[in-house]
Amino acid sequence: MIHCKKSRKDSWGPRRNGRYRILLNPARAGLALAVCFALLQSGARAEDVAATLTVAWESFWHQTGYLQAIQRWDGPVRVRFSGASVARHKDFAMRQLVEVFEAAGLPVSEATADDPAANLEVEFVSASHPLPSSEPCITNRSWRNFVIQRAKVRANEQSLWRCMLHESMHVMGFAGHPMGNTVLTYFARSDRLTDIDRLLLKTIYSRDVEPGMSPFAVLSVVAGRLIAAAGADTRSDVRQEATSFLRRTVREMEAFGSGSGEGPTVVLRSGKATNAGLAQGRTDIQFFLGVAYLRGHIVELDKQKALDWLAKAAAASHVGAQRLLKRLSEEQSG
Hints:
Strand content: 5-15%
Number of strands: 6
Number of domains: 2
Radius of gyration: 20 Å
Order of helices and strands: EHEHEEEEHHHHHHHH
Mean pLDDT: 86
Helix content: 40-55%
């Protein structure tokens, strides 16, 4: 479970970095970077790629119904432990955090109780005053310009063993609860990171991704890494399946953004979706589609479609869309 807070200084806005336009052919030699996971080795099937991309896509969706731009830390994290029986639970919680941070390539260390540099707190909640059974563990994050500034995990003592790794992924910036093979899922618990979890962490914390990046752009980066990691005998099939998935996702999101379709099934099944969250999700999708057509994320560049989608989002009071339309107008008149 995760709750997020956005700084007033934040605004949705597109990125101009050309590498966001990478679709399925990333150029960096490091893209294979420990991505040769079991799912793409020894004759992996193309449908494994669709399953992996589904998990990636669903991981960007907040359970209340909206799609989240990329949030992540940009420096070392210092952890302070508090609450009930710290001595008994601290080592376990720290091991879980270290596993996730190491997969992302980000430093993490323990802070003292009075360390002013502590930016992550893990509170162990006593069984005598537990969190609700529906939310035995919960993570809150605050950020500025999509860079995570602080985070706090609260966990019932008796639930820590099954939720700490899950919450550690939320700490790293993932909002969603995919249906598939990941510790983020609601539908099955695991006490170890999966290959897909490691792929997502390495991708989000790579130089190919920046805070505030569109989920469509990140999805294309993930697809590119899967293709780069595939063997010569499977690469064509993997490329075809990835391309098909990306195109299908755009079609589905265009239907959702236009009001004739729905968001991902996993969001509706979570039991946490709200009318307000889904309405926000529809507006955000309109904005992200506008950026996709403007920048060539997954789709071909099409300025008119970009303007149409951005206008829909702006009409629904999406600040980022309003600012982007204003800037585009100024650039055209200038």
